[in-house]
# Entry
Amino acid sequence: MAEARTGRPVDRAAIVIGVFLLILAAITVWDARRLTMTSTYGMGPEAMPYIIAGGLALLAAGHFVFALRSSLPAREQADSGAILWIALGLVALIAGIGFGAGFIPAMALLFAATARAFGRTAIVTDLVIGLVLAFVVYLMFTKLLTLALPEGPLERLL
Amino acid sequence: MDTFSALGQGFLVALAPAKLLYALIGVFLGTAVGVLPGIGPALTVALLLPVTFKLDPTGSLIMFAGIYYGGMYGGSTTSILINTPGESASMITALEGNRMAKAGRGGPALATAAIGSFVAGTIATIGLAFFAPWLVDLAIQFGPADYFALMVLAFVTVSATFGDSPLRGLTSLFVGLLLGLIGIDRLTGQARLTFGVPELLDGIEVTTLAVGLFAVGEALYVASRRHHDPEEIEPVRGSLWMTKEDWSRSWKPWIRGTFLGFPIGALPAGGAEIPTFLSYTIERRLSKHPEEFGKGAIEGVAGPEAANNASAAGTLMPLLTLGLPTSATAAIMLAGFQQYGLNPGPLLFAERPDLVWGLIASLFVANVMLVILNLPLVGLWVRLLAIPQPWLYAGILVFAAMGTIAAKASVVELSMLAIFGALGFLMRRFDYPIAPMVVGLILGPMAETQLRRALSISLGDPIALVESPIAAGLLVIAALALLAPFFMAGLDRFKASED
# Structure
């Protein structure tokens, strides 16, 4: 892993991550303050959140110092289109399961969208492959291993 | 003698025909999934966990042992043939192994990896069988404060001591600890960090986190940079078999690798990277052909691969005897135990000896099966490598989602999978280690329980945490291990020279 250091004075990514850690710490403290039932002796349920929030705040400070001194390993240009396609596939999957479309169609959508992210353009072919794969997986897991998977109109026919 | 009879009983369990079948299925599935590029043993185990949901505990754990070892074998095949190690511990194997494959010696490279893994796995499992009862005797005397100190030590070694950057390792750990807070507090029954979402009351599933971070994160990462480095599969040319010279150059590295890997894996020292690095360095120094290193030296495959496998068996030591996972794979295996309400530790040895020793015996069985199966089947595994990347990752995501759905079919769970996937992508992009987060999630609540138990026994007096010499000693070691990377530039230099 060659870590090419760029010559920027401040690493913005490290600052953003530090701020994010601070926000996490703040949420944790806010949540722990709501805990009304504490123990009379020893440690209550609020102690550990405070410790972890303290650790996160320290790490945030560490990121700020780090951002001034050096920078995170260089990143390559990311293909945002590919990420978007996978995100779309995951959203389709969640929506499919949420709205009761069933396991097989939801999986087929995820399969086709991911394949598209990796540069395939034959979406119909990939949908069919996804359907077949999901069908086989569905049969294997519900019939052979007797696991319950979400059913939609298609699955109820089986 | 106790160990012999216990192990004998274990073999009676593991050699029953049904259990042999489970082991065979586990080994087969583990290798098949582990051989896919970018998938290491941790992800293999996480992806295949749902397959074991409906089996009985013994059968499921035996299948698990097979999956674990199979995943390790599969990973080395990928490293050698396409130079994409699924995890950092196989990076070294890729270094020399891939060069050997490019030079038309892929067969012997695969063979020395497979046989070396067999030798190392067998010796290390013997070590496990003999040292585990001894560690159990020690563990019985551990009080809550000692356990807490041990977990603190594990946190430090997993995240800070051996990583590239203590800052990034600790950040990963603390986010994991934070995720571990989510859910109902076990002592007072109050919900923490659930924000009124009922699905969060049970806490975050280790498998959802692991599969999200490893599988979805990896898919996003590879997709985002697919234009950067196309992978090439090296065909296995020539003979599969090792020549006499290969044998004589391999056997010593196997043994040395084993004795590096097992103790380092058994200590809560986090992962198999260190022994593989060490083994590589030692073999390069001891080799009669140092000029071949970097061009495909068989010692550079034999030693690290043995070290890798031995340390995998080593991590089972703290896992089985103390319930302490020290690698991502071990964390997921612990989740596998917990799905049956089993808590590894001294009690499990007393209460379910059939299960523990059956598992240990089946490690031997899995090892034998692997070495018999894998060399003849290498053609099949190579064909798996040839699956076009779009379909491969689409398939991986389908299985990742399937596992989550099989565990908990809810929109919340799937959304968490997607969020953890995004997190895993960002962590890869900015080079944050993933294992500390997984270990933090599973070990955090355990550490909290022990800490609170220790403090309520002492009526809140914090001195109780260091009163026991064991606890005090462990905490001192943890403090040293935390500070070591800041003072030991030597470790960094050692690492830099390997890069």
